[in-house]
Amino acid sequence: MKITKRVADALTASERTRILWDDELPGFGLRVTPGGVRSFVLRYRNAAGRDRTHTIGRYGVHTVDQARAAARKLKVEIAGGGDPVAERGQMRNGSTVNDLLARFMIEHVERRYAETTRAMARDLVERLIRPALGSLRVEDVRRADLANLHSALHKTPRQANNVLAIASKMFSLAEVWGLRTDGSNPCRRIERYPEAARERFLSPDEVQRLGETMREAEASGLPWVVTAEGGKARHLPKEEKRRARISANALAAIRFLLLTGARRSEALDLKWSDVDFKAGLVALPRKKGGERAPHPVSAAALALLAARAQSAAGPFVFPNADDPEKPISASVLENAWQRLRAHAGLDDVRLHDLRHTVGTMAGKMGANAFLVRDVLRHANVTMTHRYVNLDADPLRALSDRIGEELSAELAGERAQVVGLDHEREKRNGRAG
Questions:
Q1: 333 near 254, Cβ under 8 Å?
Q2: Does any domain span residue 74?
C-alpha cells in the first residue's frame, strides 16, 4: 500500500523487524523494530549490482512527504552512480577533525589566504579549534560543539567570531569533500558577537606631531625612557646623551606607509623592480594577499623612493641593515613605531592606522567610495564606506540646508535651495 501518515501512525511493532514497502515509489519503505522505532528506508542496487538498504531517517523527525522527497532525490543520485550506504560508511569510518584541519590548512588556507591571514588562522586553529574539536570525527561534530566553543570565547568577541568563521569555512569544505552530508554545517545559525569597529586615524595635529618626532629621531635620536628607579643610577649618562637613534630604513618605511596607505607587509617586501619612476607607479597588490600590479602613488612617495634609490644596496627598497639582500624585519619596524608613537603621544595608534588615515583623508577631500577603494586597493567598497564623509562639515552643511527648507515650509514660506557645492564655496570665500 502507499505509505501515508495514517498508515505510519497505525504501524505497530512485532517480534521481528519488518518493513512496509510503498507501492508508489519502488524501494521506499517504512521499517519498524521490535522496540517500536519507525524509520524510512530506501532499498536499491548499486553500480556493482549489490543490494543496499539505506536509512533515510526516523519517522517523527521526517514526515512521510519529506522522506519520500529524500528517497526520490537519492534515486536520482544512485542512477548517476552514487551509493549512499557506502558514502555513509566512509564517513563513519573516516576522518577526525584533526585530519580535516590538516587538509583545510594545506588546500585552502595556504593557497588562498594572505600571509597575515594565514598566520591568524594557524594561531586560532592550533590554540583553540584543534584542542576543542580535533579528536571528534568530522561527521559527529554538532552545532552545540561550536556554540560552546564560541560562547567560551565571549570575552574576546572578535577572536570568537574569527574562530567561528574559520570553522564554518572548514565544515563547508567538508561537505564539498564528501566528509559531511550537504547542508549539515554545524556553524549555521550561531549568532556572531557584535564587534566595535576601530576607526582610529591621525588628525592633522597628530600627523604634525609624528612628523616632528620623526625629524627629531633622524637628527639626534629619541630620548631614553628612564624609570624612576633607573633615574637614580650613579653612572647614568647626562640627559643630553640619553638618546638613541632609530633605524633609518624603518623611518623611511613608516613614511612610505603614511604616504601610500600600503599595508606593512607590502612595504617590507617592496623591491626596486616594483618601482617605475618614469610612469609614477609602484607595484602593489590589487587586493590583500593578491599579485602585485602597477599602482599610482603620490609625488611625495616617489620623491621618498627617489632619495633612497641614490644609495640603494640590494633588491629591497627597505633593506635589512645587517644583510641588504633581505628586507627589514617586521620586529624592527614595529619596535621603531612603538618608540615614535610613545614620544609623539600617540599611544593608541597602530601602524595599520596610518592606512586608515589615508582612507579618511581621501574621504574628507570628497572622494567617493570607489575612488577610496582604488586608493587603498580594497577588493570591494564594503570596507571603503567607513572612510567616506567622516568629516562633519559636509554632513552639517546638508543638515543646515534641510532644516532651513523644512522650517521655511512649516512657516508657509519658500526657501531658496542652494547647492552644497555653492554653499561650501561661499563659506570658504568668507573664510578667505
A1: yes
A2: yes
